[in-house]
Amino acid sequence: MIALTKDGSFWQITLERPDRANALTADMLEALIEAVSQAHSDAQALVITGTGRTFSAGADLDEARTGLATSPLWERLSAAIARLPCLSIAALNGTLAGGAFGMALACDLRLAVPEARLFYPVMKLGFLPQPSDPGRLVALVGPARARMILLAGQPVSAPVALEWGLIDRLADPGDLIAESRALAEAALAAPRAHLAAVKRMIPWPVQTPWPGAP
Length: 214
Description:
By secondary structure, this protein is α/β, with parallel strands linked by helices. It has one domain (2-200): Alpha-Beta Complex (2-enoyl-CoA Hydratase, Chain A, domain 1), CATH 3.90.226.10. The protein contains ten helices and ten strands. The chain has helices at 26-42, 61-64, 73-82, 101-106, 122-125, 133-141, 143-150, 158-164, 176-189, 192-200; strands at residues 2-7, 10-15, 45-50, 54-56, 87-92, 95-97, 109-112, 117-119, 156-157, 169-170. The strands form two sheets. It has a six-stranded mixed β-sheet, with helices on both faces. A hairpin with a 2-residue loop joins strand 1 (2-7) and strand 2. The longest helix has 17 residues, at 26-42. The chain is globular, with a radius of gyration of 16 Å.
């Protein structure tokens, strides 16, 4: 359900569970963590995308009810992506929802097809967001819009997400990977040490729990 393809130092991870809207299981999260860990040593650009019309619906609901929703695997995955010394790109082939937000927020850049919708229904489902997600979300869109997504539970269309800064560029479905590759050309051409050094100068914020948080 996870495919890893390599074209030199340009790597692509693809979620391949379109019959279940690429909903993520514990096994898929483990496979994603392993693939990202491999990319730490060899990739200069990593693209994460999905098959079908949905990037990911978040946690598989059956597994979410039995503990996956609060698993540390989510934070391990987003932390592994954020620590990558290479360029990371989330290529959203469709809707992004729930726990899958962590992957996209941890990436350096986010592309989306115009039809994509983004929503994080923690109010509706009764789960907390991943610990690092609110801080990264605020860094991208500001506190008011982060509250619109997390507290008001409002879905955001891809064009609005582009206006807010949650998405960096829109691309037609047939051009999504080609656009990602074009954005990676400078990173692919640079010496690996230089790429890593520049990336270290643009750190992601670390979310600190509020006093009294569990």
